[in-house]
């Protein structure tokens, strides 16, 4: 039924209406491919003073393992073509090995202070480590714009067929879905499972970064 807000009872003394937001130790950012997630996450950190980490920067924290971006890229070719089950991922020795390496890198990142981590970890895992965490997702719905963005990457800059680029975007997202499935009970990209979901086509690069940065500063 319709309710008249002017007739609403005084709720000033009900804690359920007045949660006190505390700056989190970590923001975990998932992003759909070509939603500008890395760029937005990096800029949000510049605005807020948090430290930004993604797969490349996390690997730099654990050089003793000798794992490079190229090593991860080669493995992720296995994740891009079809959906894998949790059981299949956990039975994959290379997936388990890389996950443990990234997990150790995340431990180091968290120990160094407040940070934003793009992919590679879930909110549940951060909380289990004893840190507070907020989860966020950037997504985009304008496929024409996503195709243009995709072609700024060396992966797709020479791909002239739009349908091939669209297929590539889907495969990049499949990698992210598969990767998260082994780390979280929540499905990657399921917007209602995130604390904040941002449509970057609506807000654009700069303003989305400002909105995300609001999670990391008062």
Describe the 3D structure:
The structure is a single chain. With 218 residues, the protein is of the alpha/beta class. It has a single domain (23-216), classed as P-loop containing nucleotide triphosphate hydrolases (Rossmann fold, 3-Layer(aba) Sandwich), CATH 3.40.50.300. 44% of the residues lie in helices and 11% in strands. The chain has a 5-stranded parallel sheet with strand order 2-3-1-4-5, sandwiched between helices. The model has no long low-confidence stretch (mean pLDDT 94).
Indicate the low-confidence ranges by residue numbers: none
Total number of helices: 9
Helix percentage: 40-55%
- Determine the CATH superfamily: P-loop containing nucleotide triphosphate hydrolases
Instruction: Report the sheet with the most strands, covering strand number, pairing sense and barrel closure.
Output: 5 strands, parallel
| Proportion of strand residues | 5-15%
CATH class: Alpha Beta
Indicate the CATH architecture.
Answer: 3-Layer(aba) Sandwich
Principal-axes geometry comes out as globular
Q: Report how far apart the termini are.
A: 37 Å
